[in-house]
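Quiz preparation item.
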């Protein structure tokens, strides 16, 4: 139920004329309050921003490395092919068409036994003898995680004498990728908590230094948001500035990761750098603001 006092207050507010110039002055005053609060924090700002830069560097490098690692694993997984060896007198073209209709099969390449035998004879000196090699199909799957399913389906086809692929390598690659992604999530959550705790302690010091000023503003009837906003902006400033500094070491790591992609001849993820930088700025600013809000709720009742 809304009390009569609240109804009257709401009615009065509706009849107060809105002046955009007044709103502009209020925004200016809030910005100046934020700047003054940062100045009054003094040399502590350097330690806070440096700490934020280190934390966000770890955050950015971890995400960028995870993206690159997943890309390399996927690229190497796509190189893996299932080798299907056919029985004698089996039409390789017909089997190629049959396997090509399977779900998740991207391409089937036919290697006739004649071609395999000629290639082998070019590489080593072989005496005249009957060709013992079978017709072979190289099956490429669209995604590495489906290679086992396709492998199982091909085993059931009539006319297949043997089938193989680097099963252990594929499993290890998928396991490593899963471990890296899980570790990244855990570390990112830990970094978020650590960042919020740092900002919370910093804003707590600011609140203590401005305790009398805040009490006076409350007695004068200043709106709560006017008291809160400069503190939230101060925390956001620390996160934003830390992210800006963290770009420098991130670029160094990105060059190293690009060299890794070149070594494996796998293209680097498109827009990965821009995505990580954007994530650093957004998360840094958000973590800083959240730390301030948490401190405000704990230490001042407004």
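Solution:
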């Amino acid at each position: 139920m809304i009390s009569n006092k609240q109804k009257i207050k709401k009615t009065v507010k509706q009849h107060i004329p809105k002046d955009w110039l007044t709103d502009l002055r209020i925004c200016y005053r809030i910005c100046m309050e934020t700047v003054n609060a940062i100045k009054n924090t003094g040399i502590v700002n350097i330690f806070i921003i440096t700490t934020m830069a280190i934390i966000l560097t770890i955050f950015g490098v971890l995400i960028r490395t995870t993206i690159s690692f997943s890309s390399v694993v996927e690229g190497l997984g796509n190189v893996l092919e299932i080798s299907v060896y056919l029985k004698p007198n089996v039409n390789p073209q017909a089997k190629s068409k049959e396997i090509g209709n399977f779900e998740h099969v991207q391409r089937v390449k036919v290697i006739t036994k004649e071609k395999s035998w000629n290639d082998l004879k070019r590489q080593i000196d072989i005496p005249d003898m009957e060709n013992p090699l079978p017709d072979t199909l190289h099956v490429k799957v669209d995604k590495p995680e489906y290679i086992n399913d396709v492998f199982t389906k091909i085993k059931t086809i009539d006319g297949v004498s043997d089938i193989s692929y680097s099963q252990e390598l594929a499993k290890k690659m998928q396991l490593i990728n899963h471990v890296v992604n899980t570790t990244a999530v855990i570390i990112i959550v830990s970094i978020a908590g650590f960042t919020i705790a740092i900002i919370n302690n910093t804003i707590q010091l600011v609140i203590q230094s401005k305790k009398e000023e805040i009490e006076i503003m409350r007695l004068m009837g200043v709106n709560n948001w006017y008291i809160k906003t400069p503190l939230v902006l101060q925390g956001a400033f620390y996160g934003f500035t830390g992210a800006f500094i963290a770009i420098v070491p991130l670029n160094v790591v990105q060059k190293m990761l690009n060299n890794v992609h070149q070594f494996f001849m796998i293209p680097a993820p498109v827009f990965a750098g821009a995505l990580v930088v954007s994530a650093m700025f957004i998360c840094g600013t958000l973590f800083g603001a959240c730390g301030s809000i948490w401190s405000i709720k704990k230490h001042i009742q407004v």
